[in-house]
Amino acid sequence: MKTITQLKGLMKYIGSFLIIFTLLSCVKSEQTKEQRVYQLSEETTYNDILKLIGEEKLLRGAEKPNADGSLGRNKKGYFHARFQINMTSISDYAVTSQNLEALEFFFSTVKYSFNHQLSDGGFELAIPSDLLQSSAFSPPHAGDLASGTAFFASSLGLSLRSLQQSNWFTQSVETQPIRKAIYELNPSIEKTLDYLISSKDYLLQMDEKAPNRLLFDALAYYTLGKYLSRKDAVSLAVEFMDKALAQTDSELGYFIYVGVGDSSYNGVAVKLALELYFLVDEIAIKNKLKEHIIPAMNWQMSRINENGKISTSGNKRVYDGGESFLGREKKVDYSKSIKALYYYGHLTGSKEVVSLGDKVLTFSQRH
Questions:
Q1: What is the pLDDT averaged over residues 186-213?
Q2: If we measure between CA atoms, which residue out of 270, 257, 253, 162 comes closest to residue 215?
Q3: Residues 6+ apart with CB under 8 A from 361
Q4: Does the CA dihedral 81-87-88-89 come out positive or negative?
Q5: Band of the pLDDT at 2, cuts 50, 70, 90?
Q6: How far is Cα 167 from Cα 188, in angstroms, rounded to an integer?
Q7: 3-state DSSP call for residue 134?
Q8: Beta strands of the chain (E only): which ranges?
Q9: Is the per-residue pLDDT at 277 higher than 60?
Q10: DSSP-based three-state secondary structure for 143
């Protein structure tokens, strides 16, 4: 009887131990999960994040314009202002390094763009002859032109707000001539903003099912609205942003394209959402962006292979044999996903996310 009693006591002891061990394991598991939750700083500004990314990486991502200020597909002859969108890569480096030559390069891209402005605030369109002769070509309509102008304006506005918040740009003697030159362009810049505001319905129709385009629109309205103190533009920015954020998957958080997630477009959308997050003054808007950025970025990181390649498996837009734009098959937009990873890694203080950005950058430069 004594042996049985002792055995019962031992079993009771083991049972209690297992319960405690299980509880501790659960607590440890929950703590591990908590450690993986990224916290977004609310104090970090756009220029702060540029400094954290560093001059060397920003320089690697900067596009040098032609002598006339042209960028992208405009380098072979003017096409449209939308292809000046990489101007921000130059201003990013200029602001961070306080490099006057880079600032001059940036201004040349702005001046080049406005040399092609139309009286209504839009921009000239000069379609290359090879595209005109292509069977894939279809004539653009008003919505296409408005959307292209919004792409350009989102980059211009982001650059102008960054410059506005740079003590070097606003106070340095060496930057005074370019400050004056940009200020003299303000009437032309406002004319473009007026054009975009008057094109609101076109943009809503064109971009309603494309979250990244809605965010380009929102960024254009918000940055130029703040730059020019236009509350009507800021209000429109919030409207477009809300429409974009409404198009995220309720379970996995990605931005929805053709009913699913797309690893190229989602990366672009997250990058744009993060830029808005850095720039908005209103805490309610910042919190709304945060709620959608975290799950969308988690999904984006899950699409990155061990070698740094962004998987296109499951995409319905960007994949081998997928959609084309202006006669060229769309490829994964590595540069914007890389920028999003750097933004997010430094914003959250996560070295692993920054390292992931390095890995994707290395892959993209080797392929």
A1: 96
A2: 270
A3: 57, 60, 308, 334, 338
A4: positive
A5: very low
A6: 25
A7: coil
A8: 256-257, 260-261, 324-325, 328-329
A9: yes
A10: helix
